[in-house]
Specification:
It is a single chain. The protein is of the alpha/beta class and about 140 residues long. It has a single domain (about 5-120), classed as Response regulator (Rossmann fold, 3-Layer(aba) Sandwich), CATH 3.40.50. Helix content is about 45%, strand content about 20%. The protein contains 5 helices and 5 strands. It has helices at about 10-25, 35-45, 60-70, 85-95, 105-120, and strands spanning about 5, 25-30, 50, 75-80, 100. It has a 5-stranded parallel beta sheet with strand order 2-1-3-4-5, sandwiched between helices. Helix 1 packs across helix 5. The longest helix is centred in the last third of the chain and has 16 residues, at about 105-120. The protein starts with a strand and ends in a 14-residue tail after the last helix.
């Protein structure tokens, strides 16, 4: 089970994304602001961050850049429902988001985006451990 931090200033969007992830079997922590999420990231370990781009106090771009600066290696999926979503998401991708997704596609594409991102980000088995594909 993966621990995923979801960040969105819209309670409705936050609840929708969290529900989809919980239904997919993930453990989810939700924050209504990027500042609150940043504090939580200092105290807890997460496998993935799913963040909205446009938020009032601190935006998703700053979340992505903070993860790059601190070298945490936590992959980020960026979401946006704004009018300029495509260009904002492309910018987020250039800044380091592993995946981008328009909010209008969340119900259809989030589970696959999360699974793909976690699969790429999964650490290799430690020496002497068997991977899931070994028999």
């Amino acid at each position: 089970m993966s621990r995923i931090l979801v960040i969105d200033d819209s309670r409705t969007a936050l609840e929708t994304v969290a529900r989809l992830l919980i239904d997919a079997g993930h453990q989810v922590a939700a924050c209504l602001s990027a500042r609150a999420a940043t504090e939580r990231l200092r105290r807890e370990r997460f496998d993935l961050i799913v963040t909205d781009i446009f938020m009032p106090d601190m935006d998703g771009f700053e979340v992505i850049l903070e993860q790059r600066r601190n070298g945490s290696g936590i992959p980020v999926i960026a979401l946006s429902g704004a009018r300029m979503a495509r260009s904002a998401l492309r910018a987020a991708e250039l800044m380091g988001a592993r995946r981008i997704l328009e909010k209008s596609r969340v119900e259809h594409d989030l589970a696959a985006a999360v699974a793909d991102t976690l699969a790429v980000a999964a650490p290799a088995p430690a020496p002497g451990e068997r991977g899931t594909g070994d028999s």
